[in-house]
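Treating backbone geometry as a discrete language has practical consequences that deserve illustration. In the encoding step, the backbone of a single protein was reduced to a row of integers, each denoting a local shape. The amino acid sequence and the backbone structure tokens for this protein are reproduced below.
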Amino acid sequence: MSTLELLDAARSRLADAPREALGEIVVPRRFLGVARAPRIERRGAAWHLGVLLLTDDAVFATGDVLRARQEARRGYTAESQRQRAELAAAARRGGFAEGETVHIGWRMLQPGAVDRGEASAPLFCSDGVPSVRWSAAGGLMPLEAYLLERVALLLDPSRGA
């Protein structure tokens, strides 16, 4: 089965499954010389399948995942915590509901390239079989098995909880 056929089969099984928001960071132009706070704007929705985000007509590599929340003054022990809090507040400023999951930093993949034997990381062709690298240190897994497992977990989260 080709990569595109595997993705289409997953889409048909996921028709009624919940999707998560895709967002993009937007830095507004200065107004009267004053910088305005960045926000994250909605760019669609996708099914979150581990390292893949699947939409009706595309597949993306997962980037960062966050939950939108109101900005609050807090003391942070790490700069990374402060940056994540700023991104969560930017999502809220962009119109996402409190607690809504938002994916940012995603990038489009080329499933057709995989079928031609090229890579579109994390998608690869291994010995003629469409495969996915499911973690930075993990090996390749056949895409068909990966999608079956991830779709099952999304449709019945209690199995993986």
